[in-house]
## 1
Amino acid sequence: MTTVAVPRADAPGAFGATDHKRVAVRMALTAVAFFAAGGMLALVMRAELAEPGLQVVSTGTYNVLFTMHGSTMVYLFVTPFALALGLYLIPLEIGAAETAGPRWALAGSWLLTLGGLSMYAGFLTRNGAAAATWVGFDPLSDAVNSPGEGMDLWILGVALAALGEWIVGLCILLTVLRKRTPGMTMLRIPVFAWAMTVTCLMVAFAFPALIAAMGLLWVERQWGGIFDSSEGPVAYQHLFWFYGHPVVYVMFFPFVGAVAECVSVFSGRRFFGYLAMVGSLLLFTSLSMSVWAHHMFTIDGVTVKYFSLLSISLAIPAGIEYVDMIGTLWGGAVRLTTAMLFALGFLVQFLVGGLTGIFVGSSVLDYHVNNSYFVVAHFHYTLFAGSFFGAMAAVYLWWPKVTGTLLREGLGRVHFWLSVAGANLTFFPMFLLGRDGMTRRVADYPGDQGWNLENALSSLGAALIAVSLLVFAVNAVVSLVFRRPAGDDPWEGHTLEWATSSPPPRHNFDRALPPIRSYHPLYDLRQGETGEERAESSPESELAKAGPEEHS
Amino acid sequence: MPNTQDAYGDVEGVFLPVAVGVFVLVAGAIVVLALRGRRRTDPGQRANNVPLELAIVAVLAVTAAILVTISFSAEDRIGSAAVSPALRIRVVAAKWRWRFEYPAQRIAIQGVEGRVPTLVVPAGREVEIEGVSLDVIHAFWVPELRFQRQLIPDRPTRFALVFPRPGFLSSGRCSFFCGLRHQDMRFGVEVMTPARFRAWAQRA
């Protein structure tokens, strides 16, 4: 150990502590702050679109709003929040005292913050913040079409954030590979840990493409000569989407993992089909690195059949995950806690996003709905109605571990049902609008197209989402001020993070770990306590033992 | 003939019912199992069922194969443009207006500030369009035809379209974000009977 134990004042401690839990919590809080900012931008957009005509902002401002909304949510909220979950939980779940590369993780988290501040600093420049979409399409983002420092600050910000995320992702990946406690084989790490592992594999291999794209874009803006040929804009899209598709799964898998933990803990059952789940995550990962150009079906000359085939094939691993989740619920003694409600909400609503994903995976269907509100509806069903619900399931599940106090279940249920109403009211009408011909990224639309009702409903839904988030904020404050101690294991968890105090001490475990013979060591411990003899897990013995489970 | 409307309809006619069916089945299972599970006190022990899982993988693979086949066959029909189309039109996109050129007929229709231009085409005939952009990426989208294409600077994009029925379509638009006044970049489509189109082409 080369760590020098020099006592330090408190202020540097808050900014420079290398404890993975403190870094992760600060990273998550930063991400939440950016989420609040990005959410405000969305509310202004929905206010503008509530009725035809320009009422709230100018066209130019609107273009900044959707660019910064998308950039914030992808680069500064969902990805960092997912990585923060991993950074906090992975060492705990695998019985490690520390993350791999703690100082690297610290540096990564600060690069991320710096990147976000750089992007938002664009608002302080004369031409305003970037307005060339979250993708930064060339040539729209070049010096001629997007003059001003706002665009430069955006490029710098995206590159810094991506670099920070890449570093943190590598730390988590190395933690899983190198820091597992004795007995914790790769096939005994929890489902969430597997989800984070494949997430970080994608971060490791896809994020450098984004950093490269930003570097090239910056050179293009200064001196030109990068994307000048007629294939330049196509090359930029290839480079960007090589990052831009895998990142969709980076923003999805960690929450699938969290939901899997919720479903198995709150069904009182071991996760069903662990091996199939691991296999499907690996298959998912390899496919997700190979489908990027389905974002480019409408470009002449793209090999649409190849990308369409692989995109539709994603239904196979996705189907396996759903079967495993349903298999876990089947025969479970279900406790509908708020965490479980959000987990089930994730499963049902993400399904809409996933199925419409298969829909746009067909090139012929994509020729119509590409760049329409249909696509906006599709990815908000995956990211908001899906991932965000998964993130809330994770928050309700692990809040007691991180803070040592319980959230209120009553407020939680109000939060959940308002979120369900808000998400569906906001995003479902967008399917109809898109199919009917409304393009995305427009501040205004003609009043005679029959789109007024859908837009008004969608804006109303956005307001409901805002209210639901306020309810959560109240819940968080109530929980922290009027503390109800959570204890070590309020949910009867299955995994090692529940075998230590809440919050865990500096080096995570101040007591001996339970024996690790499976991916659910605490579940095994409880089964032992109740005197139930369990044979060493082998599929045959389990098949022999398990009776028909449908009746009860 | 590349009838994009029919191709889209054929594929959607399979994909949409399959999606709705899967949704009802899976979401229904989740809700029912969660509600029934609330009354249970002794949870099941079973942690896998290999034959069942393999069977489901097979069902998923077969379904995906069918969907891919249907999509590919429609894709082939769209891609099969005639060697000598009835009409060639050059579509020029620039921030933030459209220009439609008919080289053989020596006609050009130019959109101007504040007035949406109209693309004039014959009904039921194959029209070859060569699209090009003069500045940033734009996209040519006629929602009624269920078809769009990105137009990239200096990279001519060719595609064939059939406008099935005569009538006026008001919803042509640029679907690729192209800057400040992207939303104003619209056009109408006047679909004429072939005889009327011939008369129009001669008069213009």
## 2
Amino acid sequence: MLLLALLLLLVAGSVVYLLYARGTFEASQRLVLIAEDSEGVTVGMDLTFSGFPIGRVRRIELTADGVARIIIDVPRKDAHWVRESSVFTLTRGLLGNTNLKAFSGILTDPPLPDGAERKVLIGDATAEIPRLVADTRDLVRNLTALSGPDSPLAASLGNVRDVTEKLKGPGGALGMLFGNEADAKKLITALDRTNALLAKVDGLAAKADAQAFGPEGLMPETRAAIVQLNAALTDARASLKKVDAILEDAQAVAGNARTATADLGALRAEVDSSLRKVGRMIDEVNRRWPFARDPELKLP
Amino acid sequence: MASLLSRPGALTDVGRATLTWFAGWWRIIHFGALILVLALSPSSYAGPNRSAMARHIYLGTAPILLWFTVLSSLISLVIIRIVVVTAVSYGLSQYALEMVVRVLVLELIPLTAAVFVALRCALPNAADIAAMRARGEFDALAQQGVDPLRREVLPRVLSGMFSVLMLAAVSCVVTAVLAYVSVYGLATGAFVGYTRTFGHVFNPAVSMIFALKTLFFSLTVALIPIASVLYDRSRARLRTSAELQSLVRLFLVILLIEATSLVGNYY
């Protein structure tokens, strides 16, 4: 009987543990992810947040318009990790392992309501492989064309080989450039003459140097002349300063004279009017003076 | 083929052998149905039958429980270690635990429990039955008005079934604990993750298949040896003995059940 009780206990305990493991006893809310392609997603898969599983895929359905609905149960104690602004991704690695991940940047946003539907972003590493293979095939084809026996590259390399053989030959680089001896000789002659010309120019330059920069050359004398010029300019500056002073005086004088002239005119006008007055007065006096003499002179 | 058919009546022999083979299986099924009816009738558990049953259940389970638990724990430890080390070396340690649970708890433990009980318990029981029948004890019981099926056969069958279920249950629990300890050590922090993996493996379909498999194993182990012995005909013409024949049938059925469960789980 003990054994029977033990068996019943074990079986019952296992059943309870399994139910607990499958989340039967925890309240959960529903989250629906809409995906174009749910390949790789299986029922029972985890939805992870920062590496921790926070939900389990309960069902996968195909809607009437051909998109997949992935229904996920999220336990209420983990539901605060998914918010209104959460982003959900479905990534498929190269080995085919598929992961459903949730990312919540702003944890203070309002929490996701029960039954919320969200679009899931899909990333597939293996989708690049066909493109990579096609590109590689093109590259290989191009390389083959490029390195074939009758390709331009082969012809160019043949030419390069001929050139290097010429380089090794008696003419050397010059022979390769010109193709014959006479032209090469011309170039060498030209080089010699250029050398001689340069030597002459060298001597000329040395003489000119002496003429310009030597002890009796142009430059020292020019320098001395400039020094003298500087001194003369300084004198001239001083003289000009004096002239400046004189001009200022003359300006003052002219100003005074102007005012004086203006006064002079007024003075003259006054003198004129005074003289006129005096003349009138004298006339008056003359008219009234009884003793007026006849001015007229009688000549004998 | 030509030499076989050259003898007159060779085809008839082949036909007869096939029919005998099918008849043997039919007898096992018939016996199983009989035992099922007896097991479900309350009178089988009344009076002296109950004490006989209790005694056989105890005798069938208790002596081998500890040994089997220790043996299965040792083998489980080795297998867990191999799986975990291999998975870690390939960088796939996140799959190690799931694989251990699937391989050991789901598949190996019920299978080994069934085979162990078959060898230690069911076959000796069948031999007992054969010996008792040979000695005429069945007839004696029948003369006393006691149904020998109810008194001797049913308790042995039920004890075989109980033994398989008990061994499987205890070993599965011990293996689950060992798997946790092997992977995570004695830290309790990983219990949530472990529970989650366990729940992920044992979805409703897998759980049902596991329960049915264990039940069918227990039925097979309990019924086939005894059925083969009870309905055995003279085997003078064949080269195999009755025991070997029943063993072959037993393993065949166990293999069939295991294959069906694998198809149901993974196909």
